[in-house]
Structure formats: C-alpha cells, structure tokens
Amino acid sequence: MARVILRDGTVAELRPIRHDEEERARLRELFRGASPDSLYFRFFHAVREVNEKELERLLESDGRRALTLVCEAGERFLAVGNFVRTAEPDVAEVAFLVDDRYQGRGLGTLLLEHLAQAAWRAGYKRFEAVVLPANRKMIQVLHDSGYETTERWEGGAVRMVLPLGETERSRALQETREKLATAASLQPFFRPATVAVIGASRDPRRLGHLLFRHLVEGGFQGVVYPVNPAARSVAAVRAYPSVRELPEPVDLAVVVVPAREVLQVVDDCIEARVRAVLITSAGFAETGPEGEALQQEVVRRLRAAGIRLVGPNCLGIINTAGELRLNASFAPRLPAPGRLGVASQSGALGIAILDVLSRIGVGVSSFVSMGNKADVSGNDCLQYWEDDPETEMIALYLESFGNPRKFSRICRRITPRKPVLVVRGARTPAGVEVSEARQAAGQAREVAVEALFRQAGIIRADTLEELFDVAALLESEPLPGGERVAVVTNTAGGAVITVDALRAEGLVLARPPLDLGFEALAEGYRRALPEVLRDPGVDAVVVLFVPAGLSDEAAVARAVIEGVRGAEAEGARKPVVANFLPTGERAYSVRFLDQEARRLPAYPFPERTVRALARAVRYAAFRRRPRGRIPDLEGADVARARELARAALDRPGPAEGGGERWLPAEEAEAIVAAVGLAAGQPVAPGAGLRLAVTVEPDPLFGPLLLVRRLAPTAWAGELVPLGEPLARITPLTDLEATDLAAAVLGEGPADQAAAACLADLFLRLSRLAEEVPEIRRVELPDVRPAPPRACAPAVRVAVAEP
Asked: CA geometry: angle at 510 spanning 509 and 512, to 5°?
C-alpha cells in the first residue's frame, strides 16, 4: 500500500486489489457511478452495467500475468487501473477508469506511474493502450507520462506504445508532479487562515491553554477558535464544544487532548471537513504496540478523508511571515523572522533549537516538529521548502530515515540552490536504544548515511553546536570561492592553533598570518582587512582577536566591520569569520559582531571558526561542480544482462535467505560480460593496486557500491581489506564515479588510465544494480586496474525476485 498525494493536495491510498467479494462490490460501485462517456471510453461500447466476467478479469491480479491497482479513500474506490499480458510475453496492455468526481486530480497519472514500475520489475518491456480518439484525457495522460510514446491508427482507435524503464524525462516529470502536490498538501499547515485548538483549556498551566495563548499573543493574522466542551470561553475568547459547531471551515486543527480521546476528535474533524490536522498528544507508536495500533487507526481515518497529519507526539508548527505570524506550538514566543526552515523529529529539542537560533540572531522562516512522522515527514517538508521564496536555507534534526532514496533525490534538487544542514541523532547503538524511532534508526548504516550526505551535497553537522555555527556563517556570509584562507590576528598563539585547524580541515593557508600585535589594534584591523580581502589569492579571511591590556573589544569589532565594508565597497566581497576569544562570563556560543550594519559571525574558539568555514568551503565546492549525468556506456547491453538474470531465476533451484540464489560461475561471468565487465579471466600477478568491489542491498538505501583496498598479509600472502570501505549509493553519475576512483587511488599523482578504468567499472556496476532489479549482489573479490578495463579473475552474482 502506498500513500499518494493528489494534485489538489488531498491524500489517498493506492494498492493492489484483493480477490474477494468486498472488493468486487466496490468495483461494481465504482463502475455504477461512472458517467456513460467514461464507461464508453473504457469499454468501447455503451455500458449500463459492467458484467461479472469483466469484474473477475480485474480481480484476477497476480502481479505477473496481470496486475490491478485501486486508489481508495475510506471504503470507496476512486480509480482503478490494470495491465494484462498480451500475446507477446514482454508486452502488457494498460487501461484505467477514474471516478468522474475525481478526474483532473492526477489519479490516472499516478496509476500509470505505479503500474509501469511494477510491470518493469516483473520483466515487461513496454505498455500498449488502445484509446478512442475522443478520449483526450487518456491520451494526454500517456503523452505527459515522460515515456517516449509512439502511436498508430488501428480500427478507428489509437494504439499507443510506451517503452518501460525510467528515463531522465519521466523521472523529472514524476518528481515535479510529486513536489507540487506535496507543497499543496502542506499549505493548510504552514499558511492557514483559520485554526482550531481542540483541547484549549481555561487552566493557564495546561498545554492546551499555552498553545492557544501562543497563537493569540504571537499576533496570528488569521482566526483562532478554542474548542472545549466544558468551557464558555478560553482567555476571554468564546469557546465552542466541538469543531463541528464552528461558524466557518477550518484549515488547521491543532489537537491537544489525551490519546484516548483523539479518535473521536479525528472523526469530528472529518465531519467538519478540516483540511489538516496536527496532533501534539503523546501515547502513540512511541509507547509500544498498543499505541502503534492507535496511531495506525488515526492515519487510516484521516487518509480515508484525504486529510494530512503532522505528528502525533509533536510540539507544533511555526511560520514567521509578517502577513501570517503563526505560532501553533509550545515555543513561548515567535522566533525572529528569517530565511531558515527548521524541521525536528524531536519536539523538545526543536523548541530548544529555536531558542538558541533566536539568541544568536539567526532568523527562521518556518518550523515544524514532526513527532512520530505518521504522515508528514522530513521529505515532505523539504519539498515544501524547495520552492518556498521565504526559505533560503534548511536545517533538519533527524533520528531515522523513512525513505532515504527519496530524501537523496529531493536534496540533490535543492542543494545546488539552497544549503541543507542535517544533524543526525541515534548514530550509535546506545543512541538508537533511547530513540523513540529506535527501529527505523537502527536500520540506517553509517557508511550508507555518509554516502547519501556526500552525494547529495548535504552539510552534515556532527553536533547541534556545529549546526548553529554553520547556519550563522551561511546566513550572513557569501560562499567561499575556494579553499585559500588568510589569517589576521593579534595573537601568535591563536594563529598557530588556527593554521593547524586549517590543515586538519583540508584548507590552505593563503599567505603568512598577519600579526597586528597589541598597539592601535582597532586601526590595525581597519587598515589590514581591505588589503587582505583585495588579494586575488585569498578566498576567505579568519580574524582573530584576544582582548589584552587596554584593547577595546567594541572598538575592534567596529573596526573589523568597517574594514570589511570598505573592501566590499570596492567589490571584494568574500566570507569573513571572526574568533573573539570570550572573557569573563560571556556565553561560549557563536554571535554576530553587528546585528544591523554588517552581520559578521564571531566564534569563541579558533577551531570552531575554522570548522564552520570548512563546511562552507566544501559546500561551495559542491555548488561549483557540474551536476554530472548517467552516461551511455559502450558495449553495455543491460537488456541482455536482465534476460540472463531472469532466465536463471525461472529455472528451479535452491535459494538462500531472502530468496537469493548464487549463480554458477559461467552464468555470473556472462551477466557481467553483457555490461562490458571482464571477469573470470586469468590476470597476470603483480604488486599493483588490488580492490574488493561489491554491490549489496541495503533495506533502506537500496543498492550500495562498496570498495575496499586489499593488501597481502606478511605471513601467508593472503589478501585482507585495509580500513573501512568507501561507499556510494546507486545510481552513480559520471562525476561521482570519477570522484570515487580518485578517493580509491588516494593522494599523490593519480594514474589517469587507472582512474578512468575504475570509474568505468563503477558506472557499469551501477547500471547493473539499477536496471537489472533481479540482481541482488555482485562480488568482485580481487579487482585490478588494467586499462582500458578493470579485470577480475572471479565474480559472484546472486539473483532474487525483485
């Protein structure tokens, strides 16, 4: 079963049909409600009642010979789509019918996408659809699918042919459709005109009272209704006994009642046609199986009504936009407006993050506490912020990934334009054990998470402190043009620590540190900074200041700002970060030297200053790089490799755990040879580079490409792996394969021919893993670069039903 979001932002569920009488009755009801035109377009003749033979044909769905998918909301079917194998074994005919009341919401497109994916995984190569010329909606759905459609006239109808398998165009169109629908579905959360607080209490100590007051006192520009059956008013505002009795429709219902009362409240919201629901209540999946069952029932009822849910077990949502000023959260005050979107899986931690951001001066555009992520997830929030003009930077605190491959795809679209900062909790077994998302958190392998972040251009912060440090820099400074850093200081010791930190972070000292000493400090900084910033060999500047003697810190801060502004007036705009060593009782957090004229981040220690700058340098380098592409590979016949894999699966034979079957050596060699890999051939012995390269499945991230360097042992000459493997998530672009080859070869002058043949190997394995879903594992235990191809004396391949 899959949650799908329709074009208007409502939600539904899409699943395979079941062969039972209840499903038969729902199908019959769907057809009975269809208009004569819809039935005529579907069956090519006038139909008053769909016969039992046709219903039975739709119910006979095994996923291989035929598959029927239904889109449902509650107890009714909104649409049905199916494919059936034709006389040609790798061709299926596809057809749909959508309830007339739901046409124009993207249901036909969603059915086509899911059917096409299922058919491709089952081994089909193309769809065919026979369409009447007057059925323009169906023709448009097929044309807009992104597949390369061809068509021909056939007996007064149009036969349309769609080759299956994802293309760049079909993937881009699917992602755009999903992004727009998701953003529409979150509008009632982030930009509601009317809000009802269900459980608003008269007792100022209760959470329902606090949240209601936060909405009112935060200056919300819409209408707020307190809902409390036992109160005439709350905080001098008239209360209503139920959301069903409110005088106008509600965009957002915020639920602050005990978990045992939530189902009744959900039913009331459905009856009142509330557009979105946020549940702060605890007592759901985080408490165990009983709470999990209650949470699933809440989601089932809301989804049946097309309503989206934030939470449960969350602390609310915020939008600081001046025309809205929404604080539907337990944060005591609305944070300062800014350009940072924040989502947190932990509610209490999210509120603390907002407080720190406000204290250091980083403004927030919007904030959401996701809680148990029963429906709305981090991926949804990312897609909302992707095109949100109020948000220029995104920060996430996550403990688990619901769909990391989707997370990666979304971030790859966002990070070339907007930084995405992530702090991931539950990275260690101990952290997983105390996480409320412990099951999902425990499935994420660290090597896969690191690969995801690297490939998607995500800025990973190891601590919350680091997140604040990097956010302050990115919010106020331009991105560095390179890795060359100049140091202006009044302390030689601080310069030494800074230079060591630069080296440790992979940055380059652009010129000898400029030590101003302790005489006429303010004037020294004012004069030195423009000259340093004008230097074309400098990409960024670190300013160090340690108060000593009669030096006036405020005067120095003003001088630094004036020096930077003077250089910028001459066109030398580069990132400048400061380290003003704290004295006395000053807090040890990042701050801005000037909150108005020229915001410039100042850190308490040199190491933190350099670490934040290094994250910005690496992100800027990612932004400058071309995006890369998935290239065509000479001699790679992926279709042939898949035929061989399917033929091996179709033969009876023993299988291991997960249905995997290891193939005989000659079959494994034939499969990799089909994509142009040389394996199973003798290789001359030598002392050159030797690698172990594997493709293996990850339950969350999909196929992982793992590369390990090998070295012979001193006592027996056996090969053993050196260190941790380098990992990448497929599919790889040409640039990602080149970067991986460079990382394998390490520092020093690279052998260009060896790098090229390794990159070629990685690309061919990536194509094999992505485009032959029957292949579960590939093992090359001893790979040697032998230009123009990498060679391996042995290969193992395991296959399984996709």
From this structure: 75
The strand pair at 591-592 and 775-786 is best described as unpaired
Q: Which amino acid is at 444?
A: A
Q: What 3-state class would DSSP assign to 509?
A: strand
Calculate mean pLDDT across residues 631-650.
Answer: 94
Helix or strand run (H / E) with residue 702:
strand 702-712
Residues 653, 656: Cα–Cα separation, whole Å: 10
DSSP classification of residue 286: G
What is the Cα–Cα distance from 693 to 359, expressed in whole angstroms? 49
| Nearest alpha-carbon partner for 258 in 278, 236, 280 | 280
State how beta strands 316-319 and 364-369 pair.
antiparallel
Amino acid of residue 301 = R
Measured over the CA atoms of residue 420, residue 421, residue 426 and residue 428, the dihedral's sign is positive
235: left (phi over 0), alpha (psi -120 to 50) or beta: left
Q: In angstroms, rounded to a whole number, what is the distance separating the alpha carbons of residues 125 and 105?
A: 28
Q: Which residues are CB-neighbours of 388 under 8 A, at least 6 positions away? A: 183, 341, 365, 366
DSSP 260: G
Residue 315, SS3? coil
**How many CA atoms lie less than 13 Å away from 544 in the CB half-sphere?**
28
Place of tokens 């400029």: 514
Q: Which residues contact 497 (CB under 8 A, 6 or more apart)?
A: 606, 607
Q: How far apart are the first and last CA of the chain?
A: 17
Within the chain, what is the greatest distance between any pair of CA atoms? 97
What span, in angstroms and rounded, lies between the C-alpha atoms of 523 and 560? 9
| Percent of the chain with pLDDT strictly greater than 70 | 95
C-alpha–C-alpha distance, residues 211 and 317, integer Å: 11
- In contact, 479 and 618? CB cutoff 8 Å: no
Q: Is the peptide bond before 575 cis (omega within 30 degrees of 0)?
A: no
Contacts of 27 (CB under 8 A, 6+ apart): 17, 50, 55, 58, 59, 70, 77, 80
Evaluate whether 527 touches 564 at the Cβ level (below 8 Å).
no
Confidence check: pLDDT of 489 > 90: yes
228 touches 245 (CB < 8 A): no
Q: What is the DSSP annotation of 105-147?
A: SSHHHHHHHHHHHHHHHTT--EEEEEE-TT-HHHHHHHHTTSS
Q: CA-to-CA distance for 369 and 119, rounded, in angstroms?
A: 38
The tokens describing 755, both together, are 């790098």
Looking at the DSSP bridge assignments, the partners of residue 14 are 2, 71
Tell if the pTM clears 0.85, that is, is over it. Answer: yes
Between CA 307 and CA 658 the distance in angstroms is 36
Count other C-beta atoms under 10 Å from residue 374's C-beta.
23
pLDDT band at 598 (very low <50, low <70, confident <90, very high): confident
Q: Is 728 helix (H, G, I), strand (E, B) or coil?
A: strand
Dihedral sign, Cα of residue 745, residue 751, residue 752, residue 758: negative
Q: What is the pLDDT of residue 438?
A: 44
